[in-house]
Amino acid sequence: MFGVRVFLQKILILLHVTTCVVIGKTLMILFPNAMKRYILKQGEKSRMNENPKFSYENWGPTFFSFKYLLFVLKVKWKRLEDEAYEGHSAPNTPVVTFHGEVRHLFDFMQDGWAFKNNIVIKNHRSLEERKIAAQFLQKNNPLCPVVLDTMENLSSSKYAALPERLYLLQGRKVIYKGGVGPWNYHPQEIRAILEKLK
Questions:
Q1: Which residues are paired to 165 by β-bridges?
Q2: What is the spatial distance between Cα 182 and Cα 6, in angstroms, rounded to a whole number?
Q3: Partner residues linked to 95 by β-bridges
Q4: Integer Cα distance of 103 and 113 in angstroms
Q5: What is the pLDDT of residues 43-65, one digit of tens each?
């Protein structure tokens, strides 16, 4: 029964996303300037427009493309596996350290998470590619431990983290579950909660 329910949910998501992409692509063709203004307005919510190295011309025209459709489907279908809910126990998923040691997410909870800059990293086909990307991140001296999701992507799945999402865990519970980025990605919300916890 569970498998049938997930299958039907995936079909509904497919229909919804496909309809949105077709309408969005049509509007981009018919009203390119209005759609550019709308997309830029959405970018303001996530402060995406503030990055001078990431102009609208780099990302705006990619909206409503076939690759966009496939990515959005992947993200929404992955969210069906979400197991992290505010006020409930947090999934203690396996992660991999720089040295290839398999640990669990809770092993790193004594340190806080803090992100200052967004870094774009392509999908990885191997743990080695994932380690190379993590080394790039490590060079930027993050204020938190850097660990890797396993190639099974259990952390990404159980936390519904695609394309990006912030969580705050305390006492092995989820005390904050942020919105899905980039539009609903608000680091200032976590900052406010952390200030209250001081």
A1: none
A2: 25
A3: 103, 149
A4: 17
A5: 776 666 677 766 788 778 888 99
114 confidence band (pLDDT: 50, 70, 90): very low
- DSSP label of 89: B
For residue 117, the 8-state DSSP code is S
Q: Contact at 8 Å (CB) between 108 and 93?
A: no
Q: For residue 118, name the pLDDT band (cuts at 50, 70, 90).
A: very low
Distance between CA 181 and CA 161 in Å, rounded? 9
33-47 pLDDT tens trace? 999 998 888 777 666
Closest CA to 90 of 158, 190, 191, 192: 158
**Whether the model pTM is above 0.85:** no
| CA-derived radius of gyration, the chain | 18
Q: What is the DSSP string of 124-191?
A: PSSHHHHHHHHHHHHHT--SS---EE-TT-HHHHHTT-SS---EEEETTEEEEEPPPTTTT--HHHHH
Report the alpha-carbon distance of residue 144 to residue 129 in Å, rounded.
Answer: 21
